[in-house]
Write a structure and sequence with these properties.
The chain is built from 13 helices and eleven strands. By secondary structure, the chain is α+β, with helices and mostly antiparallel strands. The chain has two domains: about 80 residues, PH-domain like, CATH 2.30.29; about 210 residues, no CATH class. The strands form two sheets. Strands 4-3-2-1-7-6-5 form a seven-stranded antiparallel beta sheet. Strands 8-9-11-10 form a four-stranded mixed beta sheet, with helices on both faces. The longest helix has about 35 residues.
């Protein structure tokens, strides 16, 4: 609606854009009761203040008042806009943010607090939340993860096993003896899968639902059933402690956290679909490895009184490990593991 009003001394000077073209016109704007009046030349437009949307301030950029129909009024008079909103009893958008922008100390303090919160979230929050999520995940869902991960492994890393019938029978016998005890009452259906490792070499990997993948190279490297049992007890420990799911959830949570910070929606939408690959490529934390080694040490101490079989095969595998990048290698340094196993043995029963 066009009418005639007299500008006040608090009129804003700026530019008017009608929303239909890129042309801008010098204009004045002022508050008249509950309406905003915009004058361009001899023409005036009166708009109810409730229909005006004021963009939040952003640094030193021009303030923008959006009018009905796509028109807008732009001005460099930031103080005038704030005064106009104050007189109208309207709240300044993002007022707190604007206040902080003008105070360097607050900005720095906010930045430090933001970084600290991010570090705490990644260091403590995500592991705790992923652990809870892993414990709450039903066995059927974990088994579904196993199937997806095994497809990735077979497609990208592994080949069909070439073990003889006698070798496979031996491995399955040891595996069954270990998992029956370690997994007792846990509700997992343990399953052994043998594959030719190729470039991954001698390796074993526990999937979340109870599937344990062992390469032919590791089977051939084992010089006794006790060495195989130590490896299987370690992997069974990962399963019963739900390390696989927790590790994957933590990786997905980290991707989502970064996507929220960067605004990269594509990362957030693809995080869940990347779960099988994350299970393959991301290793366990040192604490998870220690926990799994404790399970293995417990089994070996109960059935042989020594952790030496696991220490021996770990040492041998470390010496024979291929120099190519090993995506399935998830363990911390050898010396650290050997030292921990010796301590566990020395303190057994205390």
């Amino acid at each position: 609606m066009r009418d005639t009003a007299t500008p006040t001394s608090a009129a804003l000077r700026g530019l008017f854009l009608d929303g239909t073209s890129a042309a801008s016109h010098e204009a004045d704007a002022w508050l008249d009761g509950a309406a905003l009046v915009v004058r361009v030349g001899d023409a005036q437009t009166r708009v109810a203040l409730a229909d005006v949307r004021v963009e939040p301030p952003l640094g030193r950029l021009r303030r923008v008042l959006h009018l009905p129909g796509g028109a807008r009024f732009e001005t460099d008079d930031d103080a005038g806009v704030r005064a106009l909103l104050s007189r109208a009893g309207a709240r300044e958008p993002l007022r707190l943010v604007r206040t902080l922008e003008g105070r360097l100390g607050w900005v720095l303090a906010s930045l430090v607090a933001f970084v600290a919160a991010g570090v705490l979230m990644v260091t403590f929050g995500l592991p705790a939340l992923s652990g809870v999520a892993a414990r709450l995940t039903p066995h059927t869902a974990l088994s579904s993860m196993d199937a997806q991960v095994l497809r990735v492994l077979d497609r990208q890393y592994l080949a069909p096993s070439t073990l003889s019938g006698a070798q496979r029978s031996r491995v399955e016998r040891v595996f069954g003896r270990v998992t029956r005890e370690v997994g007792e009452g846990q509700g997992f259906r343990f399953r052994l899968v043998t594959r030719e490792g190729g470039e991954t070499g001698a390796n074993a990997m526990a999937l979340p639902g109870g599937t344990v993948v062992v390469t032919d190279e590791l089977v051939r490297a084992a010089r006794s059933d006790a060495e195989l049992a130590g490896v299987f007890a370690h992997e069974a420990g990962h399963v019963t402690l739900r390390h696989g799911a927790a590790s994957a959830y933590r990786s997905v949570g980290l991707l989502l956290f970064v996507s929220l910070l960067t605004g990269d929606v594509s990362s957030a939408t693809t995080a869940a679909s990347a779960l099988p690959l994350l299970l393959v490529q991301n290793g366990y934390s040192r604490e998870m490895e220690r926990d799994a080694d404790r399970v293995a040490a417990g089994w070996l101490m109960r059935h042989g009184g020594s952790t030496r079989p696991l220490r021996d095969i770990l040492t041998r595998l470390d010496e024979e490990r291929p120099s190519v990048p090993d995506l399935l290698s998830t363990h911390p340094g050898l010396e650290e593991r050997l030292s921990d196993l010796r301590v566990l043995e020395a303190n057994w029963g205390r």
